[in-house]
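[Discussion] Sanity-checking designs against the backbone

I'm trying to build intuition for which residues belong where. Below is a structure token string of 421 positions. I'd appreciate it if someone posts a full sequence so I can compare it with mine line by line.
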């Protein structure tokens, strides 16, 4: 399939009473919208309308389209719950998925989205710890970008009373990723130092906050200059402007021996730099390849540069340098018990006031292109949220004041740098 080709709509057997628009793809497994197994036959016959963001093909922002699914209600399977989604989290994985660079996402047409929050509307058999009306955080490998979603009950987590739906949607992917890397892989301890790239992004802010829960941890954070005040207030000890300065040189000036932990979402030459920055017994964790994403569409040049400059090691080199290299990808994490435990820890930290998601901006489904563009252009400070409910006339996007202070000159400079990289 070419970068601009849309996937043809798949033909699927229609159940009685089910309708779809001509260009609508069949709902993905987690995107179905049944009701409770205890519903009456009349309720089950009532058609259900559901707004969803569907990736129709690989390419630019126009490939993500708002569609309305209309289908008959069906019975929930045992262990499932139906959630009315109130907010969804946008992640860099969706930007990569739109370009065909995210393997865990099925081929188009598919409803994207891995995290959200909402209210339980129905429960299936054998579900004992969820009730209709519960406010929950929900996770799925895909299919969350829609108004109603069916997920296994054990992939939902009760929200603290003081937590907003926007905060609930901002917790799972970013904070689980940061938590697993820092505490399960790198074993961060008092007195250690950590380099956090993209420190103003969702994972960057989560990692910084989690580092604050350990005494005397030094955080080096890369971000554009307009974001330094904000990330410094959030716990970054040494903000570094990656656009105008060599972050390796800046770190060496402060810490000649380097750092203990590097969290690398960039890939390519930055992975090599991160490895060289490690102190003996240090740990490099690669969890992304943001350097592959430059323009709106897939760039073969950027992919080739990232591949050509990737870190190449052998076991002898690791032995001689006394360093560790790890990789982390939440989408391939199959240890449900580990995820459950980490989520419980994170929600408890939230209740204690030790972590709190920073919401950069909220966009309605109709504005998904603007939301993706904001994240792609690195204008966000914190989490970008998508709202399933229709946008009201005259309603404007809510953004944090600091996130909107970027000048046109800074944005242009970042765009030039992305093309060079």
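Best answer:
Here's mine. Compare freely.
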């Amino acid at each position: 399939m070419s970068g601009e080709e849309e996937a043809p709509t798949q033909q699927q057997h229609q159940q009685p009473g089910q309708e779809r628009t001509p260009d609508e793809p069949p709902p993905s497994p987690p995107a179905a919208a049944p009701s409770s197994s205890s519903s009456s036959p009349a309720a089950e016959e009532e058609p259900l309308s559901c707004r969803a963001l569907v990736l129709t093909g690989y390419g630019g922002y126009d490939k993500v389209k708002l569609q309305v699914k209309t289908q008959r209600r069906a019975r929930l399977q045992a262990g499932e719950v139906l959630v009315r989604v109130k907010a969804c989290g946008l992640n860099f994985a969706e930007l990569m998925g739109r370009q065909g660079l995210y393997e865990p996402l099925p081929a188009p047409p598919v409803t994207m989205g891995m995290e959200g929050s909402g209210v339980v509307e129905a429960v299936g058999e054998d579900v004992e710890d969820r009730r209709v009306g519960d406010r929950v955080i929900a996770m799925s490998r895909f299919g969350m970008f829609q108004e109603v979603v069916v997920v296994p009950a054990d992939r939902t987590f009760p929200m603290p009373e003081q937590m907003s739906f926007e905060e609930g949607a901002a917790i799972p992917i970013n904070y689980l990723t940061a938590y697993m890397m820092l505490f399960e892989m790198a074993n961060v301890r008092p007195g250690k130092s950590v380099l956090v790239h993209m420190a103003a992004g969702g994972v960057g802010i989560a990692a910084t906050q989690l580092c604050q829960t350990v005494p005397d941890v030094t955080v080096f954070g890369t971000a554009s200059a307009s974001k330094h005040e904000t990330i410094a207030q959030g716990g970054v000890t040494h903000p570094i402007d990656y656009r105008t300065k060599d972050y390796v040189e800046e770190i060496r000036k402060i810490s000649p021996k380097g750092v203990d932990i590097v969290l690398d979402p960039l890939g390519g030459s930055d992975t090599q730099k991160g490895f060289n920055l490690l102190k003996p017994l240090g740990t490099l964790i690669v969890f992304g390849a943001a350097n592959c994403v430059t323009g709106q569409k897939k760039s073969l040049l950027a992919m080739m540069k990232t591949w050509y400059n990737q870190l190449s090691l052998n076991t002898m080199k690791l032995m001689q340098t006394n360093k560790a290299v790890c990789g982390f990808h939440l989408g391939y994490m199959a240890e449900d018990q580990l995820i459950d435990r980490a989520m419980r820890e994170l929600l408890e930290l939230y209740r204690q006031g030790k972590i709190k998601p920073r919401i950069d901006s909220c966009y309605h489904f109709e504005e998904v292109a603007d939301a993706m563009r904001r994240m792609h252009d690195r204008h966000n400070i914190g989490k970008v949220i998508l709202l399933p409910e229709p946008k009201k006339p005259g309603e404007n996007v809510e953004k944090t004041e600091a996130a909107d202070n970027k000048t046109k000159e800074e944005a242009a400079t970042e765009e030039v740098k992305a093309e060079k990289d």
